[in-house]
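sorry for the late reply, my laptop died twice this morning and i had to redo everyting from scratch. anyway the thing you sent over, i finally got around to it. pasting the sequence first so we're on the same page, its 191 residues, then the predicted structure underneath. double check i copied it right bc i was rushing
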Amino acid sequence: EFGVTRIALGERTFAPLQEYGFSRVRAAVDCLLHVLYIEEKYDFVRQNYLAFCDASKRHATEWDAGGGEESVRYAKSELNRHIVNILTTTKLYFDQSIRHASKLDRLVESSDINLVAQTHAQYGARLGYRVMEALRNYVQHRGDAVHTASFGWEKARLESGALGPSFRIADLYLDPAKLREDKKFKVEVLN
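ok and here's the structure:
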């Protein structure tokens, strides 16, 4: 006998289902779990990005308080670590999302929808995906993403053209020439 048991406030209620309905409910529950896993991996990326933003603000503030060259070197090192975390968790998100998305196809009866194929098509169509992957490989095996860092102040420009309030900035630079020198880096993503 197929069915679903509802448990609420200590009471159990059994609702019988046909075998087909039961298999659809099981598939839907399984798909919801896979969507939850995808969302969990996205949250890893988001949390790493927020930590990067917080560190950037903190280092810009410390520079403003009189931090010298040593402070800039430490900031560059910490911001590199945050970028490595973002790149790594982004790759994890893509790879594991493809695996979880492949499980969602069984809930959709149409063969026209293939989430895995669509993900691969977007990867091929978007330069940013390919650059992110090449840069992640580079920072994990051979070098830093941030080659130079600077901190300072900048005035906002209002729509009227007048200068607005000042804000702190953290500028991070990657030197493409250093990437081109690395024989193992996918140079074609820079062209």
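Helices lie at 19-64, 69-104, 115-125, 127-141, 176-181.
thats about all i looked at so far, will dig more tmrw
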